[in-house]
Amino acid sequence: MRYQITGKQIDIGDALQTHVKDELSTVVSKYAERPTDANIVFSKSAHEYVCEATVHLSTGLTAQAKAHATEIYSAFDGCNEKMEKQLRRYKRRLKDHHRDRSEPVELFGASSYILASEGETSEAEPETLQPMIIAEMETKIPSLSVGEAVMQMELAGVPVLVFRNEGKDGLNVVYRRDDGNIGWIDPQG
After folding, report:
1. Which H or E element spans position 163?
2. 54 lies in a domain?
3. Which of 31, 38, 63, 71 is the 20 to 30 A CA-CA neighbour of 155?
């Protein structure tokens, strides 16, 4: 597994890097079969250290964790515990599905846009109904089953996930509803 351990305006020493690699590799190897890479970023927010970790698995799923603490090692340890909890849940769900994925998740390219929000809400009619595009970037859309998409959404901690349904040939969406349940949009056609 490739590790990228960086600090935002913080000097990351060799001892911390060794600690991170040892502890994270123990957790990841325990719960994930083929991790590809890990990205760990340390930063400082006021008097606290912040540790953010992202682990990419060969199945296409991504696990993310973030923790704060007054000591840098404690921040990593808290982040590592959250990562272990996510990977444990992920492994349990994979066992519940009784299906092993032999091939990595197929990813399809797409464009992602950031649109300008209305600065102030006014009663006046806007000049144009076309939104102003602030940024454009490439993104990847995974080809997953509905269960894997729900799992990926929960692992990433995002409210919505667009994916290509493996069972069909179209784009689907899973999202967290206000009542706490999961919604699934499966267009017909």
Report:
1. strand 160-165
2. yes
3. 71
Q: How far apart are CA 68 and CA 77, in angstroms?
A: 10
Containing 143, the helix (H) or strand (E) segment is strand 133-144
Buried b (16+ CB within 10 A) or exposed e, 23-38: bbeebbeebbeebeeb
Give 125: exposed, middle or buried? Use CB within 10 Å, 0-12, 13-18, 19+: exposed
Using only C-alpha atoms, what is the Rg of the chain? 20
DSSP 1: -
Query: What pLDDT is attached to residue 164?
Result: 87
pLDDT at site 108 = 67
Q: Are residues 66 and 13 in the same domain?
A: yes
**Total domain count for the chain?**
2
Range of the domain at 31: 2-97
What's the rounded Cα separation, in Å, for the pair 142 and 166? 9
Check residue 76 and report its DSSP letter: H
Ranges of residues in the chain with a pLDDT under 50 are 98, 121
Write the CB contacts of 144 (distance below 8 Å, at least 6 apart in sequence): 60, 105, 152, 163, 164, 165, 166
